[in-house]
Design brief:
The protein has helices at about 25-35, 60-70, 75-90, 100-110, 110-120, 150-155; strands at about 10, 10-15, 15-20, 45-50, 70-75, 125, 130-135, 180, 190-195, 200-205, 215-220, 225-230. It is α/β, with parallel strands linked by helices.
């Protein structure tokens, strides 16, 4: 189980536990979010839902912010793909890439060794007594222990089907833990499900890279915070 500690004063927690949805290379919006939250590294702890670097304009900028604030993150499906492409390039076996993929690899090459090591160490989930953080979700029938690696990073619809349309995995999920936080599902946008007015499930991928918004959730305040995207509007997939 992941352990985290916040600074205390006279027994009261002074810091915050902050979750931020899929950044996807949107470093400027990431910075705006931290400014809006008035983030303080000495007190606050940031968790990311994965898919931090791809698609957007500034993968290297995102990496610099992650290191600056010591953010924690779970593995996303785009992180898996980026890691594989980086390994191929480092092994000298790179073939023709899509323009977008080549741009991102070129962007992060100055920090490639540190970045590869960091992505390799990402967990599929982070579980504490207060929350479970995953990228895409969990198997709603088999729960955490029966969720496959592929489901952790790609699950969306339930029952599973191709495409982005359909009932979501969390529609079939029965809340047995305090809070599940996830990203991945930009087509479905921000998701908040409550039981007795208390959130038990929060989906934070609100499609920043698609021109919508970057979303955050403050655990202690049960508060959603958003900043507007600076990216052009496009279809979320």
């Amino acid at each position: 189980m992941f352990e985290y500690h916040l600074r205390t004063f006279d027994g009261d927690i002074m810091g915050r536990t902050i979750f931020i949805g899929d950044v996807h290379g949107c470093a400027e919006e990431f910075r705006h979010m931290l400014d809006k939250l008035k983030f303080e590294r000495s007190n606050d702890l940031v968790f990311l839902t994965g898919d931090a670097f791809t698609k957007g304009p500034d993968a290297l900028g995102v990496w610099k912010i992650i290191r600056e604030i010591d953010a924690k993150m779970v593995m996303g499906n785009h992180d898996v793909a980026l890691l594989e492409r980086l390994r191929v390039r480092l092994n000298g076996k790179e073939k023709k890439l899509k323009k977008e993929h080549k741009r991102i690899l070129d962007d992060v090459m100055p920090v490639v060794d540190d970045l590869v090591a960091w992505i390799e160490g990402l967990p599929l989930y982070i579980e504490t007594q207060d929350f479970l953080l995953v990228h895409a979700g969990i198997n709603p029938e088999k729960e955490l222990g029966g969720t496959s690696q592929d489901e952790f990073v790609t699950i969306r619809t339930w029952p599973p089907k191709k495409g982005v349309e359909g009932d979501r995995w969390h529609d079939a999920y029965q809340p047995i833990r305090p809070l599940v936080i996830f990203g991945h599902d930009a087509p479905n946008g921000l998701v908040i499900k409550k039981q007795k007015k208390v959130p038990y499930l929060v989906g934070l991928d609100s499609g920043c890279v698609y021109g919508n918004a970057l979303s955050a959730y403050i655990l202690e305040e049960r508060l959603i915070v958003q900043v507007a995207s600076l990216q052009p509007k496009q279809f979320a997939n």
